[in-house]
Amino acid sequence: MKNITIKSGNIKDFIVDLKNNFDGILGLDMNEYQLKLDTELVTGTIEATSYQDDLSYFDFDIKFLEDVKLRIKSDGASPTYFAYCLSGSLEHTFGKKENVNTISANQNAVINTIEDTINVFYFKKDVAVKLSIISVGNTVNEDEDSLNSKIKKTFLNKAENFAHVGIQHITIAQKVSQLRAINQKGIVRDLLKKGLLQIIVAMEIEHHTNSYSATESLVNCLTLKQIEQIKLLSDAIQKDPAEQYSIKSLAKQTGLSPNKLQEGFKMIHNHTVNDFITMMRIEKAEKLIRNTDLNISEIVYSIGFTSRSYFSKIFKEKYNCTPKEYKYSQNSLAITA
């Protein structure tokens, strides 16, 4: 196993230390570093960005060609890390192998450390890992409404190190995907990333405060494989919401009981299966109104509804106007554009 030790320090020192250990090509755009790797040890990219208020972001899209133990020394600081594993898997400890946290695809980890702690990440040979990490420093700030203060109140445990591994909240996972998909350059990219990072951290605070007990229930009642099946099913419904789905057929497709399927949808999407289908149909209808010349009746039946009045009622609940009013407003915008 290859052993590598990095000091957390400031983001420049951190990424340069990674470059020196991995022998990659380092580039800089605005305040975003990108390390391109193609060596006998590792392939892929590592991106790192730092902002004011001790807010930093790291994106790993890498595959090690031998087992690697990456030790990150806190160097006196004690930041809170929010880690999101999109694919692959890795392990984390606070330096003691007996207390191992496994972070797999579709899982996230909240890691908070006391001073001078070593975070150790274990990467297995030939496992492609996509991992996003948000770091928030715990510097002293007298403003109780500041991001740092809220993080400290929510996550900081001064007596011991803290780590929580759970299932990714669907809305937070979507924001992380949006963050990784930003393709703008320069100042626009910088502003978009910072805005999304602040939103994600705020959502984590709210989620941890209100809903971690529900997350634990999800871990206990559904396996990661079952959760992945529900997410794949959700994607299929989103792509083709007009299909006449039934709970029985969907349950059979995933291998879950109808009750487990409903429970999974409630915990992942905060909607029942039928409500989720309806929501996807309404969103598809909005796109058709905005982007096609179909009339409202044609749209209603093309997305799987049989009642125009029911469709209008649900549409108005979501968009605060009738479909006809929405279509008129889009046409007016097009004329004045």
Summarize the structure.
This protein is of the alpha+beta class and 337 residues long. The chain has helices at residues 11-22, 147-155, 170-181, 186-221, 224-239, 247-254, 258-269, 273-291, 296-302, 308-319, 323-336; strands at 2-7, 25-29, 32-38, 42-51, 55-64, 68-73, 80-87, 89-93, 101-104, 107-112, 118-123, 128-136, 162-167. It has two domains: 2-221, Jelly Rolls (Sandwich); 241-336, Homeodomain-like (Arc Repressor Mutant, subunit A, Orthogonal Bundle), CATH 1.10.10.
Shape: elongated
| Number of DSSP strand runs | 13
Architecture (CATH level 2) name of the largest domain: Sandwich
CATH class of the largest domain: Mainly Beta
Biggest β-sheet strands, sense, barrel: 8 strands, antiparallel
* Ends apart, CA distance between termini: 61 Å
Low-confidence stretches: 212-220, 333-337
- For this structure, what is the CATH homologous superfamily of the largest domain? Jelly Rolls
Question: Helicity, in percent?
Answer: 40-55%
The strands making up the biggest β-sheet line up spatially as 2-3-4-5-12-7-10-13
Structural class: alpha+beta
Radius of gyration of CA atoms, rounded to a whole number? 23 Å
* Run of helices and strands: EHEEEEEEEEEEEHEHHHHHHHHH
Q: What value does the average pLDDT take?
A: 83
Q: Could you tell me the strand content as a percent range?
A: 25-35%
Number of domains: 2
- SS field, number of helical segments: 11
CATH topology of the largest domain: Jelly Rolls
Domain HTH araC/xylS-type: 231-329
Keywords: DNA-binding, Transcription, Transcription regulation
Organism: Flavobacterium frigidarium
Protein name: AraC family transcriptional regulator
